[in-house]
């Protein structure tokens, strides 16, 4: 199975360790992984700001870079959601349709496509999951608290198999962290308040490490944690699933 | 002022933000608990959404059917194309009866049409009889929430307000005392009222009847005591048959407050002998919204307020920050259809988290419509030059691998080597309260290329 590794722009530039963990994890699972070096971004920052029209070139470049792969896998729920949901602005050629269909968020790919849960990881810490909204309510990586469906969670399924890891339950299990892309700067006051409240919930729930399948939310939370010198660490779920401490 | 500025002001009092957030989250949790008790909740939402879609697709015939049946029942039906016509019709009915004192139960439509100031300008006293609405009326404020109009007010504030307007004694915000005093005050108004105005929650096409839901029984009190009952309804309030109420009433009470059903679901069909009943059916921009394919489903709304209670932004910015009659997520997709320029910041007052769409009992895809409004707004409303230029430039840079690599490298170089005071200047809204990520030596791209070389 040939997997195209999709490393979102902000992870490429700011969190290479997340990209590395994703790549290593997929290789451990026996995938033939290729990172197309021509890739840039999915266009989400423009689309969410209302400039979808100006993002067509970005989206088309994404398709060009990934059209030859069986699967396209990336460690960011919201970017993957953008490809699947909002690439409807492109002419729906066979390539575009295939890319949209075959793009997966990392946890979803491991759990749904490969059918694996135990990845042989160990991580002896108290962990809280930040269920990022686009992964949760967009890709439906898990059940959300608003709907009355039976409970499930792709991230929980994977983390439960990690040796030594203690999963903590939050008071508000899936409230938004307030990142929201350009929302984080244009609605700064609310964005910061939402982030602070999320962090406090993790602290109150005895969490040591906040993890999740979307590093943009984690970047926002980490920015607050570092500024306020709070006793918490932030790690992408790929880093935990790839660790053998 | 844009929503962000209003929200920043609201956030200056963090303790109040926390209180407001918790009060509304409590309602959201009550909703969760009561919805969990309904087997087939998601199925009910599907039905409700489908019925509303059917109504909107056949609105013309349902409206005529409703009118015909209501007239058969002895009800006078009026049509208002806009707020101005609505206000004139209501006023003319009141004039005919020489009505000077009016009691009104909760109606967001009359808020939308600004009926109260219109009638007051003609020397008519209008008393809002829903307790929350009476509180904001006394405070001369608009409702901050469509179900809980005074949710932004603490009981201590109500205490002071009642002392001033109703002559109550100071009571440290004792809710029982305050409610009892409000009851006395309102009872007096009910008895003396010449006419009663109510809203309409559901109008039933095949019977010509309509249902008004209240928790305080104030719609009934008003309508039964006064000689004239005027019911004002948005034209999207129709449902085809009475049996469909079984779906909507179950969803409405639970979604709004977590109650299994609203305390009073009052069915009005025909006037009592010797009395008059009027229905004013109002368009006021609804036909136009109906014509917008992307935004049509916003007219499914049954005004339960669940999207406000669940919205993490609404909870932390308060209803008044939206500066529109209907605040919160649903208001942010309805209001741009009424005045795009005035409400152009509202679709951006969201992280697109999608909680509103999943909580909505009639399955309005609210967050998707917010995204769509954004696309419309940047085209039709002048945007801040800096934001527009930056995003358009990003469009070009990110569509070109070489330019992207150059930009990425430059940005990382600057973040790493610029002095802290430059990076954390006033212009960097990210950095007011948050640190920027620590920049590593290589980005992923460089790491990958090095690894390839060493293979």
UniProtKB/TrEMBL annotation, chain A:
InterPro entries tied to this protein: Cys_rich_dom (IPR004017)
| Pfam families, A to Z | CCG (PF02754)
- Report which residue ranges the record marks as coiled coil: none
Q: Which residues form the Cysteine-rich domain?
A: 3-83, 128-221
Name the PANTHER family for this protein.
Answer: LACTATE UTILIZATION PROTEIN A, UNCHARACTERIZED PROTEIN YKGE
Protein name in UniProt: (Fe-S)-binding protein
From TrEMBL, chain B:
Q: Which InterPro entries match?
A: 4Fe4S_Fe-S-bd, 4Fe4S_Fe_S_CS, FTHF_cligase-like_sf, Helical_ferredxn, LUD_dom, LutB/LldF, LutB_C, NagB/RpiA_transferase-like
- UniProt organism field: Mariniflexile gromovii
| Keyword Metal-binding attributed | yes
> What is the name attached to this protein's record?
Iron-sulfur cluster-binding protein
Would the keyword Acetylation turn up in this protein's UniProt record? no
Q: In what residue span(s) does the 4Fe-4S ferredoxin-type domain sit?
A: 291-312
The alphabetized UniProt keywords are: 4Fe-4S, Electron transport, Iron, Iron-sulfur, Metal-binding, Repeat, Transport
């Amino acid at each position: 199975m040939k997997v195209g590794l999709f490393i979102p722009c902000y992870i490429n530039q700011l969190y290479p360790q997340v990209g590395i963990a994703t790549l290593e994890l997929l290789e451990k699972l026996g995938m033939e992984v290729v990172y197309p070096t021509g890739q840039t971004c999915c266009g989400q920052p423009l689309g969410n700001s209302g400039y979808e029209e100006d993002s067509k070139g970005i989206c088309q470049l994404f398709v060009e870079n990934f059209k030859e792969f069986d699967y396209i896998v990336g460690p960011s729920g919201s970017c993957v959601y953008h490809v699947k949901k909002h690439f409807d602005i492109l002419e729906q050629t066979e390539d575009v349709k295939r890319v949209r269909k075959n793009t997966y968020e990392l946890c979803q790919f491991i759990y749904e496509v490969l059918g694996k849960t135990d990845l042989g990881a160990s991580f002896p810490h108290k962990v809280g999951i930040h269920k990022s909204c686009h992964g949760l309510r967009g890709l439906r990586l898990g059940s959300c608290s608003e709907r009355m469906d039976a409970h499930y969670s792709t991230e929980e399924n994977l983390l439960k198999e990690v040796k030594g890891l203690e999963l903590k339950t939050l008071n508000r299990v899936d409230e938004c962290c307030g990142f929201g892309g350009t929302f984080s700067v244009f609605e700064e006051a609310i964005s910061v308040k939402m982030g602070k409240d999320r962090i406090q919930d993790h602290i109150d729930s005895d969490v040591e490490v906040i993890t999740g399948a979307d590093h943009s939310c984690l970047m926002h939370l980490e920015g607050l944690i570092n500024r306020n010198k709070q006793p918490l660490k932030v790690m992408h779920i790929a880093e935990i699933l790839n660790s053998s401490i | 002022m844009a929503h962000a500025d209003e929200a920043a002001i609201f956030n200056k009092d963090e303790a109040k933000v926390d209180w407001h957030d918790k009060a509304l989250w409590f309602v959201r949790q009550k909703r969760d608990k009561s919805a969990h008790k309904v087997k087939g909740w998601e199925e009910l939402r599907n039905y409700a959404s489908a019925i509303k879609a059917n109504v909107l697709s056949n609105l013309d015939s349902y409206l005529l059917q409703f009118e015909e049946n209501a007239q058969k029942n002895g009800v006078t039906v009026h049509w208002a194309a806009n707020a101005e016509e609505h206000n004139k019709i209501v006023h003319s009915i009141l004039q005919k009866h020489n009505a000077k004192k009016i009691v009104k139960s909760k109606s967001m439509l009359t808020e939308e049409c600004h009926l109260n100031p219109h009638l007051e300008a003609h020397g008519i006293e209008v008393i809002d009889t829903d307790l929350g609405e009476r509180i904001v009326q006394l405070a001369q404020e608009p409702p901050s929430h469509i179900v809980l109009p005074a949710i932004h007010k603490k009981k201590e504030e109500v205490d002071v307000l009642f002392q001033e307007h109703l002559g109550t004694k100071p009571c440290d915000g004792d809710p029982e005392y305050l409610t009892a005093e409000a009851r006395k005050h309102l009872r007096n108004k009910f008895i003396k009222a010449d006419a009663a105005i109510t809203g309409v929650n559901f109008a039933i096409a095949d019977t010509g009847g309509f249902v008004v839901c209240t928790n305080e029984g104030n719609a009934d009190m008003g309508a039964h005591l006064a000689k004239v009952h005027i019911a004002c309804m948005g034209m999207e309030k129709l449902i085809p048959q009475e049996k469909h109420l079984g779906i909507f009433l179950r969803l409405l009470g639970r979604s709004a407050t977590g109650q299994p059903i609203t305390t009073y679901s009052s069915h009005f069909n025909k006037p009592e002998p010797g009395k008059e009943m009027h229905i004013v059916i109002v368009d006021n921009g609804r036909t136009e919204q109906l014509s917008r394919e992307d935004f049509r489903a916003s007219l499914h709304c049954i005004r339960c307020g669940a999207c406000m209670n669940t919205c993490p932004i609404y909870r932390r910015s308060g209803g008044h920050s939206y500066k529109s009659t209907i605040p919160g997520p649903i208001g942010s997709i309805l209001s741009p259809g009424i005045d795009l320029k005035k409400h152009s910041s509202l679709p951006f007052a969201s992280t697109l988290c999608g909680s509103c769409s999943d909580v909505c009992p009639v399955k309005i895809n609210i967050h998707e419509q917010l995204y769509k409004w954004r696309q419309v707004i940047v085209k039709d409303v002048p945007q801040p030059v800096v934001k527009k230029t930056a995003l358009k430039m990003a469009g070009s840079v990110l569509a070109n691998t070489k330019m992207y690599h150059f930009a990425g490298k430059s940005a990382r170089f600057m973040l790493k080597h610029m002095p802290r005071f430059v990076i954390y200047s006033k212009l960097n809204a990210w950095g007011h309260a948050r640190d920027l990520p620590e920049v590593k030596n290589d980005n992923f791209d460089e790491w990958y290329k090095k690894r390839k070389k060493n293979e």
